[in-house]
Amino acid sequence: DTAVSQTPKYLVTQMGNDKSIKCEQNLGHDTMYWYKQDSKKFLKIMFSYNNKELIINETVPNRFSPKSPDKAHLNLHINSLELGDSAVYFCASSALRGAQYFGPGTRLTVL
Amino acid sequence: AQTVTQSQPEMSVQEAETVTLSCTYDTSESDYYLFWYKQPPSRQMILVIRQEAYKQQNATENRFSVNFQKAAKSFSLKISDSQLGDAAMYFCAYRKDYGGSQGNLIFGKGTKLSVKP
Asked: What is the pLDDT at residue B93?
């Protein structure tokens, strides 16, 4: 019974392709996030959703589009992939005044 | 804007010894949370310990404890009786308290901890 799950864990694709990463949490949390970890291990927020509504949208290219069909899911769709998009993408969720719990991460490699 | 600084890119400790990882942060807020996350080679982000800014008492979780100095904006992590499994990247993180579940984490750049047998 994984708390926050992501699929796929590895994604290798060609430049210019479109891909999606799915995230699901079974913790009953209201808020979900997408973080990006670059090659130097630095983690930065990309998006945050609260009860299916977008509340944080950092300076991210509009090729990245999050979608939240319901409170338990937050998917990330990326159009026209570029070499610089190669990174590890983490989904996370948080409860009221609580810590954030992370999925296992998706390593995206753009060739 | 809030920032988190970890000044030690790498640290090393002998098995069974104690090590302290440093973290400082900058914020003008009075209500916030601080966290330490561990990222082993498996890349899973694991919550180690959490501290609410309004609590004066330092948080403790088994062998892990923090030294929270609010006025100095310092939040160090002490690992006692270090084990080989403690070897990982450790991230300090800050989160503003919005009163709800919202609030993204702001991370430091991490400290890579090695444990020598």
From this structure: 97
